[in-house]
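#lab-general

N.A. 3:47 PM
ok so I finally got the sequence cleaned up, no stray characters, all 419 residues accounted for. can someone with queue access submit it? mine expired

B.Y. 3:52 PM
send it over

N.A. 3:53 PM
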Amino acid sequence: MQITRPRGTNDFLPEITAKWQEVEALLRCLCREYGYGEIRTPLFEDTELFSRGVGETTDIVQKEMYTFADHGGRSMTLRPENTASACRAYIENKLYGGVQPVKLYYLGPMFRYEKPQAGRFRQFHQFGLELFGSAAPAADAEVISFAWDLYHRLHIKGLQLKINSVGCPACRPAYKTALQDYFRPYLGELCATCRDRFERNPLRIFDCKSEICRRIGAEAPLLLDSLCPECGEHFTAVQELLTTAAIPFELNPRLVRGLDYYTKTAFEIEVAGIGAQSALCGGGRYDGLIEEIGGTPTPAVGFALGMERIFAALAAQNDDIETTGCLDVYIISGMDKRLKQAAFALACRLRGSGISVEMELGDKSFKAQMKAADRLQAAWTVIFGANEFAAGQAAVRNMASGEQIELPIEDIRGYLMQH
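B.Y. 4:20 PM
back already:
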C-alpha cells in the first residue's frame, strides 16, 4: 500500500518553494526595516506553557493541540502558535535585562488538529512579530502598520483592517458580569462550548462559529461602552496614529480573537475569497501573558499571519509571486570521459563564483541536453564538443539571442561573470 502524507499537511515542491522564498525574503527585508530580529524556538514545549499561555477556554487548548508524553512521562505539545514560546524565551533568556523594547520575529511550522479545509491545515506556517517592553499606543500602531505594509507590498487588494479593544483586568470584570446577565436567559440555546465559556470567559462567546450563538450574541452589551479611562485613551491614541499614517480601519466591537491572552488592542486584516476563514492575520496587545507564565509584568504586543493564506489570497485574485530563480548556465558535453571531466571541473569553478550551474550527469544526447537547458530556462549554455575541446576551448551560447562564441576554457568563468 502506498504511504501518503498525513491529512492536513502539504508537500511544497521546488517550484512552489521558490515562491515561498520570495515572500520570506520580503518578510526578512521588512523586519530589517522595522528593527526586528529573528528568534527560533523549539517545535515542542511543555504542555503547561500553552494551557496557561494560550488559555484553557480556547479551542486550541481544548480541542486542537498535538500533545504526547515523552519517554520521561512529561507532557509535551507541538507548538500550536508561537507567542507563548517567544514569551517563555524572553523570560528564560533574561531579555528583559537589555534595552527595551525587545523586537522579535519568527517564521516556521505550527500544528493544530483541525478539520482540514480551504485555508486551514494541521501543519501550517506562521510568521509573527512580538514587541516586548512598551506599553505605548505607538507600539500597537507599529505592529499593525507592519502587517498593512506587507500586504500592500504583495499587491493584495480588498484589504480590510478591523480593530477593537478588549479592555484590561480593570474594566473586564464588570463587563463579564454584564455579559453573563445578558447570556443567562439563553444558556439552553448556546452550544456546549459556549455554555462552558459562560462561567470562565463569556467574552469568548463572540468567537464562536455557531450561527445560533452568533445570533444570540448580536445584541449583547459592547465592551467598547465599558472601557476604563486608561483603555479608552489607549484605544483612541492607536486610532489617531493609524489615521495619521493613512491606514484605513473600521471598528468591530465583536472582535475578540481566538486566544485568551489579549488585552486592550485586538485587530485582524481580512480579504475575501480565501475560503472559510477570511482573516489573513491577527494580533493585538497581551500585557498579562509574560506574568501569567512566570515572568514579571511586561507590556507586549504582536501579530501572526498564516503563510498559506498569503498564497490563497494571491490565487483568489489571479496574482502570483514572480521568482528570480532562473538558471545561469547549463553545461552540455559529449560522452567522452575527458569531456565529462572538463565539464564537471568547470561547473565546480563557476559555482564557486556564485554562478548557478546544471549539467548532464548521465549519458543523454546533445539534443536532449539542449532541451533540458531550454526547459530549465538557462541564460547561457557552455558546450564541450570534441573538436573544440581538442583546441582547449568550449562554445558559450547566449540562449536569449542565440549568439555563440568560442572561448578558451580558462576564460569562460571571467566572461560569464562580466555578462
